[in-house]
Design goal:
GO biological process, one term: carotene catabolic process
Helix content: 10-25%
Structural class: mainly beta
Protein name: Carotenoid cleavage dioxygenase 4
Radius of gyration: 22 Å
Largest sheet: 6 strands, antiparallel
InterPro entries: Carotenoid_Oase
Shape: globular
Pfam family, one: RPE65
Strand content: 35-45%
Binding site for Fe cation: 214, 263, 328, 507
C-alpha cells in the first residue's frame, strides 16, 4: 500500500537476524527461559475469548458479587523462538462478569504499545527484561538488533515497552492494568462483559517512566500511593495520586544507592515502608553475558521508612533486615500511639532461586515490628507453609486488620489451597502458627491468588467471600470458585464452569457493579 520498500527490507533483515540469534548464537536454554518448559501445561497461552455465557455448576452466586472479577497474567501472543521467562508474557485479562446470579466470561489481551507493535510486525521485537540476556554474544546481538530497529524508526521506546501483565487497580474513577516496567494502561468493561483497552496513562509519568504494579489505595480518601524503580539515579521515586487522578510532586529517594527490584511496598496512617532487597539490577552485567537482574547474597537487605506525605526524603531512614527479602507486602499499620510500625509480608526464602528456580523458592509469612523511636526491628513467622499472593479486606489498607488470606504455593504461582490467618494471634512472642482456616483443592487442581469481597452491609471484617480461578489439570478445565471467608474450612458456596481454561497468572481485583457503571462512560 504505502509501505516504504526500504523499511520493509529492513524489517525482514531484522527478523532474519532475530531468527539467526535464536538458532545459532543462543547458548542452550536454561529451564527457566526455555519456552517448551515455561509454557507447558496450564502455563500455555490461550486465545482471546469474547464474552461467553457460563454455567453455574454448584450453589448460587451471592448478590454482593454483582460486578466483575478480573485477573491479570502473562500470555504471550507468539510462541517464543528464543528464551522466554514467565514474567515476560503479554498481559491478558480474564474477567467473569456477574449479574443476577448469571455469569459471562471473557479473556482479552491488554493492548499495550508492545502488543500492538508486535502484532503488526508478526513477531516479538522489543527486548524482554527477564529473558533477552542469555549469554554474552546473544545479549549483545539482541541489543544491536533492538538499537537498529529504534534507529530505523520501527520502535519508539518513548511509548513504553511493558506488558501490563501483573495486576489491576481501581482508583481516580479508572480501572488500570499494571506492570512495573511501564506506566499503567487504562481499561474498562462494557455492559456485555467485554474488555477494552483505553490506552497508556501518560499523566502518571513522562517518556521512559514506569510505575509499580502495586499502588496502595486508601479506601476512605480515594488517594493512591505509588512509586517507580529505575536503572538510573534516582533508583526509587515515591509519589501519590490524588482522588481526581492528578499525580502529586515526586519524592526522589536518593538514599537508595543501587538499583534494586523493589516490587511492592506498604503504607500506614503516617508512613510508607519500602524494601531494599538482595534482588538487584546491574545493567553492566549484560557485558559479562549475564542477566541485568540478579541476586547479591553479600548485600544486607533493608527496610526504609518515610512519612506518607513527605515532600522530600530528609526524614527517611533505613533499618537493616538481615535475611528478610520482601516481594509483596500484605498490609501495615501503627501501634503504641504511632511509635511502632507493624507490617505483614511474605519473606522469600532461598532468594537465590527466585529468578532461576521458582520451584525451589518458598515464602514465609512474617510479622515485622519496627520501633520508630529506637529505629530497631524484630520479625517472626506467623504461619507454617509456603505462602504468598495474600490479600485482606480492601477497606483495611493501611489500617490495623485481623485477617489475611494467602495462597499455598506449590510452587507459586500455582496454589494447592488457601489459608486464613488471624493476626490477633500473632502478637505474643511464641504465637506459633496463626492459621484459623484452610481449604485445600482436590488433587490435580490448582488456584492462585484469592480476592476478598465483603458482603453488603458486612458487620465484621471477615464477613464476605473469597473468589479465585481454579484449574483442574486432570480434566483440563477451569472454574471460578466462591468461598465463604467466615466458614471454618473456607467452604465453596458456588462454582462456575468456564468456557475456556485460565492459565496460571498473577493478581486480580473485584469491581462492584456500581463502579463498573462509572467506567462505562470512560
Amino acid at each position: 500500500s504505502g509501505t516504504c520498500p526500504n523499511k520493509s527490507l529492513l524489517t525482514n533483515i531484522f527478523k532474519w537476524l532475530d531468527e539467526f540469534i535464536c538458532d545459532f548464537i543462543d547458548p542452550p536454554l536454561r529451564p527457566c527461559v526455555d519456552p517448551n518448559h515455561v509454557l507447558s501445561g496450564n502455563f500455555a497461552a490461550v486465545e482471546e475469548l469474547p464474552p461467553t455465557a457460563c454455567t453455574v455448576v454448584q450453589g448460587s452466586l451471592p448478590p454482593c458479587l454483582n460486578g466483575a472479577y478480573i485477573r491479570n497474567g502473562p500470555n504471550p501472543q507468539f510462541f517464543p523462538r528464543g528464551p522466554y521467562h514467565l514474567f515476560d508474557g503479554d498481559g491478558m485479562l480474564h474477567s467473569i462478569r456477574i449479574s443476577g446470579g448469571e455469569a459471562v466470561f471473557c479473556s482479552r489481551f491488554v493492548r499495550t504499545y508492545r502488543y500492538e507493535l508486535e502484532r503488526e510486525m508478526g513477531s516479538p521485537v522489543i527486548l524482554k527484561v527477564f529473558s533477552a540476556f542469555n549469554g554474552l554474544l546473544s545479549s549483545l546481538s539482541r541489543c544491536a538488533v533492538f538499537s537498529g530497529r529504534v534507529l530505523a524508526g520501527e520502535i519508539d521506546p518513548r511509548r513504553g515497552a511493558g506488558v501490563a501483565n501483573t495486576s489491576l487497580a481501581l482508583f481516580a474513577g479508572k480501572l488500570f492494568a499494571l506492570g512495573e516496567s511501564d506506566l499503567p494502561y487504562s481499561v474498562k468493561l462494557t455492559p456485555d462483559g467485554d474488555i477494552i483497552t483505553l490506552g497508556r496513562h501518560v499523566s502518571f509519568g513522562e517518556a521512559y517512566m514506569t510505575m509499580t504494579a502495586h499502588p496502595k489505595i486508601a479506601a476512605d480518601s480515594g488517594e493512591a500511593f505509588a512509586f517507580r524503580h529505575s536503572i538510573t539515579h534516582p533508583y526509587l521515586t515515591y509519589f501519590r495520586i490524588n482522588p481526581d487522578g492528578i499525580k502529586q510532586p515526586e519524592v526522589p529517594i536518593n538514599s537508595l544507592k543501587q538499583a534494586a527490584l523493589v516490587h511492592d511496598f506498604a503504607v500506614t496512617e503516617n508512613y510508607a515502608v519500602f524494601s531494599d532487597p538482595q534482588i538487584v539490577i546491574k545493567p553492566s552485567e549484560v557485558l559479562r553475558g549475564k542477566p541485568p537482574i540478579g541476586v547479591d547474597l553479600g548485600k544486607v537487605p533493608r527496610l526504609g521508612i518515610i512519612r506518607k506525605y513527605a515532600v522530600d526524603e530528609s526524614e527517611m531512614w533505613w533499618v537493616e533486615s538481615p535475611g528478610f527479602n520482601m516481594n509483596h507486602a500484605v498490609n501495615a499499620w501503627e501501634e503504641d500511639g504511632g511509635d511502632t510500625v507493624v507490617m505483614v509480608a511474605p519473606n522469600i526464602l532461598g532468594v537465590e532461586n527466585v529468578l532461576e528456580r521458582l520451584d525451589l523458592t518458598q515464602s514465609s509469612m512474617e510479622r515485622i515490628e519496627i520501633n520508630v523511636k529506637t529505629k530497631k526491628m524484630n520479625r517472626k513467622s506467623i504461619c507454617n507453609g509456603n505462602l504468598d499472593f495474600a490479600v485482606i479486606n480492601p477497606a483495611y489498607v493501611g489500617k490495623k486488620n485481623r485477617y489475611l488470606y494467602a495462597a499455598i504455593g506449590d510452587p507459586m504461582p500455582k496454589a494447592v489451597g488457601v489459608v486464613k490467618i488471624d493476626l490477633s494471634l500473632s502478637t505474643t512472642v511464641n504465637s506459633g502458627d496463626c492459621t484459623v482456616a484452610r481449604h485445600l483443592f482436590p488433587p490435580g487442581c490448582y488456584g492462585g491468588e484469592p480476592f476478598f469481597v465483603p458482603k453488603a452491609a458486612a458487620a465484621e471484617e471477615d464477613d464476605g467471600y473469597l473468589v479465585s480461578y481454579v484449574h483442574d489439570e486432570n480434566r483440563n478445565e477451569s472454574k471460578f470458585i466462591v468461598m465463604d471467608a467466615k466458614s471454618p474450612n473456607l467452604e465453596i458456596v458456588a462454582s462456575v464452569k468456564l468456557p475456556q481454561r485460565v492459565p496460571y497468572g498473577f493478581h486480580g481485583i473485584f469491581v462492584p457493579q456500581c463502579e463498573l457503571e462509572k467506567l462505562y462512560d470512560n
